[in-house]
Specification:
heterodimer; A: alpha/beta; five-stranded mixed sheet; B: alpha+beta; six-stranded antiparallel sheet; four-stranded antiparallel sheet; flat; disordered C terminus
Chain lengths: 178, 663
């Protein structure tokens, strides 16, 4: 009898995985609602990544609409979206802050040296602790924070030009007009 | 017209597959020879039909028929011919056609070369294969028709992602699919055996070559993918624990375990249920990989255009195939008689340990891949798992694996003598200590893990060589006699030695490449020189040139070593016309011990460029190691007993002087 139960185990495990896939399929990872939408930016203070770029902390938010982009040098999609972030920053659409997540300092510095640094502030979150407070679910992720310092939008995964043109930029305009 | 022919061929092959999935299996149950015999012509017909469909699609790509939607979205008239062809499988629909083609190819091979399989087993195996094929054909025809037309036809196509326009990547998917789909044969054999309720040594002998083929292709596919990432992505890394990489790595781990456990079934008639389970899991992980890549459940750069409808369909396929086979397993496997008993310290014990470690590693990778979404689905919060997780869990599992891989082959079946095996391996231990000390001396101040990695690699390499030397009696018999024995050794024995050696070399390569890399990133003007690991790189300047479908900026570096010119390196940065994407073409100078790797980045101000230069020690060893592993698999595949089918066990008098490992 015990033996029979043992042979049922793979099926049970698979049933669990399949159930999870069914749930997973219903969720679009790109629009995972953030529990933090419309909430103020969490309390945190991070050390700087580069000497020339200021660090990032809760006190830095408020007053203007800013974008927070979570990135890591080991993340491939980050590479893909980086030119778009660069352009947003270069065109002066809004200030972009970087949250460098679970990354070695030297790697991240080299990465920015290679691809360019669009960030007006960068916080270095080596342990990923602050990422958890922000509800970071993977890299890259991008947030918009309004003038009162509340998180208003979250995008999971790399941004594409369509997303930026059709969703992000209009939202930025609305937020800036508020 | 051609595209419609391809579409009809697919529809016909679905019908053939459906018939092939039903009739032979009923025939096998009724012992009706005519019904069983139907499987062979059906499998061949299916191969012909799917080949026709594939040829039709390839033709549409080659002549750039942009009225076919798939061609218009993924090709371009200016694209070089090789990439027009590789564009066929560089997209979701086309890659499915390739998938089904390879499946049909395996089916055809079993039909043609399965002459000495017992007819009921053959009929059932082919029927299960056809069932899988029917599922995928239905999926393709209902949700992902590769031959869909577009009207009006665009003047030119969208082009293939330039990152994918690369010789390494042109062959990466076919290799990988040959591996994934190859596991379907092991799966079909397992399901057929469960239906039959009989697993014996002959069954194991039949499953092993197919698993070996799949394993060798998977190894090649993974190595090619990693090689591509190394030279094309342009920052010198080779493995990123990306979900899609993991999706190919998990079946590889299970296939490796399956190869080893099938030996136990064949030689000792033991571990039967476990082997069947591994065969099911191996293919299940291939299917799960397909699901993950195409459903949009995980996002990744590898992801094809994702679509929830397709995701649901694949999920259904997945549940039917995996769930069904596991139900069958739960019903039938418990009644399988366990065969020969063995002590924990024995050849079987070593193989079981290998199996446990490999499976645990696969589970770890699966967890790391799914965990973030798992917690999210349970609303327990959001976490993410990066390379740190995999490095922290995977490496500790591989350490005992490699230690055992050295000792296992030295142990006897049933009851091994650990002390004896270790005393025969004392030279391996000594060699590994010497290598450890040498490494420590050479890399003082660098991560201590490097010393461990090299010591393990040395241990495995030395024990593989000692095992072979021991077996052919070097030192105990005259050299000419040893040579004769070496020639008489079964190819599978050579296969094991070569594969284990390859693994050892690859481990050394991975160690060097991950831990001892030197990199320099800087802005350089023409005439500037920097020193990287003792090589002086002088930047001579950059010039513009035009390729068939891109513009490029090509830089020239003169590399000197102690004042003498060592080599000239010319990395490029390309901008492709159509998709306006940039790619880096690293310049790589390979020698036996290291790669020099140079990349040109963006222009920084007037007449200055960002350059990245790497010194990557031992990287070539990874590729050499992988090649040896593939060679070992091929050698083992050419073993006499696999070609001939079911030979009698050879027990020549020479066995008396052989050490424990007689096979």
């Amino acid at each position: 009898m015990v033996r029979r139960v043992l042979f049922l185990m793979p099926l049970v495990v698979f049933a669990g995985i399949a159930a999870y896939f069914v749930i997973g399929l219903g969720m679009d990872p790109r629009i995972v609602p953030s529990a933090l939408i419309d909430k103020p930016v969490p309390e945190f203070e991070l050390p700087p990544l580069l000497d020339a770029v200021p660090a990032l902390a809760t006190a830095d938010f408020g007053g203007e609409v800013v974008m927070v982009n979570v990135f890591a040098s080991w993340c491939i999609p980050c590479r893909a979206e980086h030119p778009l972030i660069n352009r947003l920053s270069e065109d002066g659409v809004l200030p972009v802050y970087g949250l460098n997540w679970k990354d070695k300092k030297a790697d991240a510095i080299a990465w920015l040296a290679e691809l360019g640094n669009p960030y007006a502030r960068i916080g270095h979150d080596l342990s990923g602790r602050v990422g958890i407070d922000w509800g970071v679910y993977g890299v890259p992720e991008t947030y918009l924070v309004d003038k009162s310092g509340r998180i208003r939008y979250k995008h999971v995964g790399p941004m594409f030009s369509e997303v930026i043109e059709e969703t992000v930029k209009p939202l930025i305009r609305d937020l800036q007009a508020e | 017209m051609i595209a419609e022919l391809g579409h009809f061929a697919l529809i016909l092959s679905l019908m053939v597959a459906t018939a092939q999935a039903v009739i032979p299996i009923v025939g096998a149950a009724r012992r009706d020879a005519t019904m069983m015999a139907m499987a062979k012509p059906a499998a061949l017909a299916q191969l012909v039909l799917v080949s026709l469909a594939f040829a039709a699609l390839t033709y549409s790509f080659i002549v750039s028929d942009f009225s076919v939607l798939n061609v218009a979205s993924n090709s371009h008239s200016l694209k070089p011919l090789l990439y027009k062809i590789s564009g066929v499988w560089g997209n979701h629909e086309g890659s499915l056609v390739l998938w089904v083609l390879i499946l049909a190819l395996y089916g055809g091979l079993i039909a043609l070369f399965g002459g000495n399989l017992p007819p009921p087993l053959k009929a059932r195996v082919l029927a299960v294969q056809a069932l899988v094929a029917a599922g995928f054909l239905l999926f393709m025809l209902l949700t992902s028709n590769p031959f869909e037309r577009v009207f009006p036809a665009p003047l030119d196509g969208n082009d293939l992602n330039p990152l994918l326009q690369d010789p390494g990547l042109a062959f990466h998917p076919p290799m990988l699919y040959a591996g994934y789909v190859g596991l379907s044969t092991a799966f079909s054999f397992a399901v057929a055996a469960l239906i039959e309720g009989k697993v014996d040594a002959a069954w194991a002998r039949w499953v092993r070559p197919w698993t070996l083929v799949a394993w060798a292709f998977l190894t090649a596919g993974i190595a090619l993918g990693s090689w591509w990432a190394y030279y094309e992505l342009g920052w010198g890394g080779f493995w990123f624990w990306d979900p899609v990489e993991n999706a190919s790595f998990m079946p590889w781990l299970i296939a490796t375990a399956l190869l080893h456990s099938a030996i136990v079934v064949e030689k000792r008639d033991s571990l039967k249920a476990w082997t069947i389970l591994l065969a099911i899991i191996g293919f299940s992980l291939s299917l799960i990989g397909t699901f993950l890549v195409r459903s949009g459940v995980l996002t990744s750069v590898h992801a094809f255009a994702t679509d929830p409808e397709r995701g649901l369909f694949i999920l259904l396929l997945l549940i039917i195939a995996i769930g069904g086979s596991l139900i069958l397993f739960a019903l039938r496997a418990p009644s399988m008689q366990a065969g020969g008993l063995f002590r924990p310290i024995s050849r079987e014990g070593g193989l079981v340990l290998n199996n446990l470690l490999m499976s645990t590693a696969a589970v770890t990778v699966l967890l790391g891949t799914l965990y973030p979404l798992f917690l999210d689905a349970l609303e327990l919060g959001k976490v993410s798992v990066g390379p740190p997780f995999f490095n922290a869990t995977f490496v500790p599992l591989m350490v005992p694996m490699i230690v055992v891989a050295g000792i296992g082959p030295m142990l006897a079946w049933k009851r091994g003598d650990l002390a004896g095996a270790l005393s025969r391996l004392k030279f391996a231990l000594a060699f590994s200590i010497v290598v450890a000390l040498g490494t420590a001396w050479l890399t003082w101040g660098k991560p201590v893990l490097g010393v461990a990695g090299m010591a393990l690699a040395a241990w495995l390499a030395a024990s593989a060589v000692i095992e072979l030397a021991d077996r052919i009696g070097i030192g105990r018999a005259p050299f000419s006699k040893s040579l004769g024995r070496a020639r008489g050794l079964p190819r599978s024995a050579w296969g094991m030695t070569v594969t284990h050696l390859g693994l050892a070399i690859a481990v050394a390569g991975i160690t060097g490449a991950s831990l001892w890399r030197t990199e320099a990133i800087q802005v350089m003007r023409p005439g500037d020189t920097i020193d990287v690991a003792g090589y002086e790189f002088t930047f001579e300047g950059a010039r513009n040139l035009r390729g068939p479908n891109y513009f490029a900026e090509r830089a020239t570096f003169t590399v000197r070593r102690e004042g003498d010119v060592y080599t000239v390196m010319e990395p490029e940065k390309r901008r492709y016309f159509v998709q306006q994407r940039e790619t880096t073409e690293a310049a790589i100078h390979t020698t036996l011990m290291k790669d020099l790797y140079a990349v040109i980045g963006d222009k920084s101000g007037t007449n200055a460029w960002v350059t990245r230069i790497y010194h990557n020690p031992l990287v070539p060893w990874m590729w050499v190691g992988s090649l040896l592993m593939i060679l070992g698999g091929t050698l083992s595949l050419s073993d006499r007993r696999l070609r001939i089918g079911a030979p009698t066990r050879r027990r020549t008098p020479a066995v008396a002087v052989q050490p424990a490992g007689a096979e």
